[in-house]
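Same chain as my last thread, 260 residues:
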Amino acid sequence: MSCFFVFIFIVICFQIQSVILFECSKIYEAVDVSTLELLVNSEYIFFDIDETLVMPITPFIYGLPKSDAFVSALDSCEMKFIRELSHKMEDAYYLAPLQLVDPELPTFINQLRNSGKKVFALTSRHLSDEEPTQTQNLKLLQNLNDFGIQFSHIQNHVNNTSYSNTTIGTIFWAGSESANKGDVIKAIAGNQQAILIDNTLKKITTAIATEETCINGIHFLGAYFREEPISKMRSWVCTELGKMGKLCPSCSSSSFHLNA
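reply #2:
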């Protein structure tokens, strides 16, 4: 094959790939940064934070498959105390130290910014000066800073959108788990091509359906591979039940040993 035809072939392949990447309302899947690098090709890039960039080192994380499966399989004795256990799980979630979902994320985000991309954080968390929310959010931002994550800074005021211009860049706060992140993206990017990287498929599906936008989603599964083992989940539940003065058959010495 002549060099001319090889060149034409490469150009055609590149154009086909560009069309695929720039279609609107598409959802892709990535398990690590090396996969993200193949998919992220947009002017505006929005990263979810919790379980996308960082995650707590704790046995139970709502929304992750192993945690959800374990909780749904609790026996009838344990389910009697699910309300108390759920509160303790949430407290442990916010008190636990944080870790990066992928150690290459800070470098990747910096590379995107250095290439001229506008890269922002877009979390479902609520921005508030009330406790304990304020302390939880400050801890999150401090950890992002410590990990070396830096976002872009928004240049113009964005109406009807909650955001913070911080030392690590602009953080957008959607305000609730049910909020449509697509509305925030629309306020910033308009109908320009944008990508939402999030660990929650439902939030992506909602965002890409936002009218008068061109949003693609990347379902980032990195946190799925960093969940704590089942043995730690079982140990945590039994320990907390013991602190409450409760005993379930699943936490008897022989049964617990089999599940450890």
